[in-house]
């Protein structure tokens, strides 16, 4: 992979993508990557374990994207205790040496880098608003700097309001804020949503995005995980690559959608819902099994190419 220098603060990227516009509350869904007709029920999806070998056989190059929570690590009650086990870290490190590998997470980018500890990987944090990679690539993207003051204000209001909601947890990332409701009593869940709406009514340059037992507050611009993955693919010169994205969250649907025609989304979990993913894995154990199967397949491709070049 050739070295490329790509540094952006966000404005030119948003202008080129047609996304540099604020969205009203009625347009929150439009802030994400556009939906297509490629949707199925998760229960109907074939296993990615059966599909991975033919997928890799047909690919010229590969971009592997992995969510963190619920994908590389099991979902836990509090985000700070979700630690990556040594065996999975080793798998990610091996894969990063065989193909372009990115961790695409709602977590703060610095947090996810610290937890994964694979310097060869690329990291997409804050649901796509903050992208970085290995030092030799000199690649970075930050979208959201003009919104930092509003995010700071939203954080203060959410912390004050959530103090009245036992179990609610505010998690600040640089370019987004998560209000976790996993430990909130069911009867108080409407109050969690009402608190977010109350805060956003005062800060129209921010928007809400739903997740699994969490509400995300983000800059109110048309950007998401899906668009950040497409940006990364282009920045790395991988236009002809097969892009695979493995994730469990509603926010991963934006990636599944943009990869519907020239990539493959892999949904993780037992939840029954509509999805743009093409394949499924039941849990984090199957994710680890998939990664383990990919390593010899990718290594064989590398060896084969080296042999053809020598010959």
Provide a descriptive summary of the structure in words.
The protein has helices at 11-17, 48-58, 86-96, 109-116, 148-162, 189-202, 225-235, 253-258, 284-310; strands at 6-8, 40-41, 62-66, 100-104, 122-125, 130-132, 139-142, 169-172, 177-180, 206-211, 214-219, 242-247, 263-268, 274-275, 279-281. With 311 residues, it is α/β, with parallel strands linked by helices. The longest helix is centred in the last third of the chain and has 27 residues, at 284-310.
Please outline the helices and strands.
Blueprint: E1 6-8, H1 11-17, E2 40-41, H2 48-58, E3 62-66, H3 86-96, E4 100-104, H4 109-116, E5 122-125, E6 130-132, E7 139-142, H5 148-162, E8 169-172, E9 177-180, H6 189-202, E10 206-211, E11 214-219, H7 225-235, E12 242-247, H8 253-258, E13 263-268, E14 274-275, E15 279-281, H9 284-310
Parallel strand pairs: 1-7, 3-4, 3-12, 4-5, 12-13, 13-15
Antiparallel strand pairs: 2-14, 5-6, 6-7, 8-9, 9-11, 10-11
Which features would summarize this protein structure in a list?
4-stranded antiparallel sheet, alpha/beta, 9 helices, Rossmann fold, 9-stranded mixed sheet, 311 residues, disordered N terminus, Alpha-Beta Plaits
Give a concise summary.
This protein has nine helices and 15 strands. With 311 residues, it is an alpha/beta fold.
- Whole-angstrom Rg: 19 Å
Instruction: Give the structural class.
Output: alpha/beta
**How many domain modules?**
2
Number of helical stretches of at least 4 residues: 9
User: Strand-and-helix sequence, N→C?
Assistant: EHEHEHEHEEEHEEHEEHEHEEEH
Number of strands: 15
Largest sheet: 9 strands, mixed
Which runs of at least 5 residues are low in confidence (pLDDT < 50)?
1-5, 23-32
